Prior knowledge:
Elements: H1 11-37, H2 39-43, H3 50-63, H4 68-76, H5 89-103, H6 106-109, H7 128-143, E1 153-157, H8 166-175, E2 179-183, H9 189-206, E3 211-215, E4 221-222, E5 225-226, E6 232-235, E7 238-239, E8 245-247, E9 249-255, E10 269-274, H10 276-281, E11 287-291, E12 297-308, E13 311-318, E14 322-325, E15 329-334, E16 337-345, E17 353-356, E18 361-365, E19 371-372, E20 383-386, H11 391-395, E21 401-404, E22 409-416, E23 420-427, E24 433-436, E25 440-442, H12 455-467, E26 470-473, H13 479-492, E27 498-503, H14 506-510, H15 512-519, E28 526-531, H16 532-539, H17 544-557, E29 562-565, H18 570-575, H19 580-588, E30 594-597, H20 603-615
Parallel strand pairs: 1-2, 1-30, 2-3, 3-26, 5-19, 9-10, 18-20, 26-27, 27-28, 28-29, 29-30
Antiparallel strand pairs: 4-25, 6-14, 7-8, 9-13, 10-16, 11-12, 12-13, 15-16, 17-24, 18-23, 21-22, 21-25, 22-23
Helix pairs in contact: 1-3, 1-5, 8-9, 8-20, 13-15
Amino acid sequence: MHSDIHLQPNTENHGNLETILDKMNAIHLHVLAMERWNAARLKMCHRRYLASATNLLHYLALKNLDTEQIKEELSFLGLLNIETVNTHVVSSLSICNKMLISSGSDSVLGVEKSSEDFPAHQNMDLGMTSLVQKAFNNRDLLLGKLQSQKMTHIMVTVGEEAAENNAHVTDLINSGTTSFRINCAHGNPELWSMIISTVRRCSHLLEKPCRILMDLAGPKLRTGRLKDGPCVVKISPKRNAFGGVISGAQVWLTLQGAGPPPAHLSPDVVLQVDGPEFFNKLEVDDSVKFYDARGQRRSLKILSKYHVFSGAGFMAECSKTAYVESGTSLYVKAKGRKSLVGFVVDVPPASQYVRLRVGDLLVISRDSSDEQELSPCSAIGAHKITCPSGYLFDSVKPGDPIAFDDGKIWGVIKGTSISEVVVTITHAGPKGTKLGSEKSINIPKSDIRYEGLTSKDLMDLNFVAAHADMVGISFIRDVGDIVVLYQELGKRNFLKLGIVLKIETEGGFEKLPLLILEAMKSPNPLGVMIARGDLAVECGWEKLGVIQEEIMSICSAAHLPVILATQVLESLVKNGVPSRAEITDAFNGRRTSCVMMNKGKHIVKAVSSLDTILNTQHSKPKAELKSLYF
């Protein structure tokens, strides 16, 4: 086989090498100049982060240059890929320069140009090994050390379903969860205490350390609370297109306060029953009779019995639609036995909502009351909700786009007043989309000036520091927010509390390097969360992929752990089956320090699957090559 490629050096190649070396030296000098220009900023960094802050500045200087041509030239020589040096910039450039020098002779290159001419950093090790180790150390400092040679943490959002529920939390930890997240926008200190106590207890018993992140609510705009609906639950069997019953609804019967069913069961409805004698004598194949809220006679067929921590529970089947409310009497009549009677209790109130369709008008009112009566239409024939935050009414103008519930619903502001905003809905589901209480509101193109920490955040911060390992700071937009945060932490002497900067706005993304450098003035463990829900709405769906990559690159240069959040394996969590795209998205989570999942019906199964995707050392599949050999 003949080739025109000549591997032996010649005079022309040495000329090229000299040109490339000149360019590399210029890049090296530019990177070091960035460090000198920011010497005062670096001097203020805590010694824990000094080397990382320095490398971040080197990375930013490199990104600021047009390096396309030099990248091609280095690639042709089989040398450095500039796009992969962000973890150790100066060290990589120095090694590349030495390799270029060793590739030629002094007689051709003229005066030898060595990276040794550049000044050494005092009291700072910027070598590759040292900086890579800093990234691991910062990850362990914030999230804890991983066990069993795992490489990526898994965080799960939990709520009241985890309070005093040892079985659920135990299943999550055994499935691979290493951190738990509590959202301070929901619940109260009493509920949070119960959740944290349960997590700590289960973690200790299993000898599997777990950390707790608590997100401060921040200044996020949300819909107001709608008044709870009636305490009634609908039992619905599955039907075909003609209305015929395919399978009965699965109903879990349990004693009052006994907690949820085992993780491997997925009932459609859970009914708590007051009646210990009723439960003690209930048997498989019994038929439980009752009259529903409409007076219709219905029955539950007992299919199986399961032993749980608090005693026993029963899985039953209902083949007809029923509406069950608190106080409903359940009874069993069987030959040779006295009639058994129990009472349904603690049926939760039905969540209220408005259903919005394209073309609908929605009036957002500045209502300061805690709960709003469900009012399908206002005086002008529009749906009506409230928003307790004055920011919305003070900053928006007609023509601004507005999104609800992480972008599930979109609209355009048609009119504003001191107390109301009128919105025309431009995007919703084909059959309309539900909008309920405490759902997010985003106005991407507005110039709303939020306060960094709200009064609620400051109150919650005291609880978080006393009970959690990390605090998530929501909707950070500029350096002033970081300054206020660390002032408050300093007042309380919270120097060991982990800090997670949640990047969920365009302003937060654009100023991320400055936010990180400001945060590095404190010794607190530090990390960054890519909150893709709000980030996609605020910045635009089509930009999310590029923004996510850039955040990971910046954090890699700063040696900070990244938490990837929002809609990870969401179909699996909610429906039990993942989409193909979700699998590859989850696999890309290997590039981060932690992947966060939201709660859902199949969360335990989803955590187990994610743990396999992230932490199993698969052998790489290979294409069939035998047929290519002769």
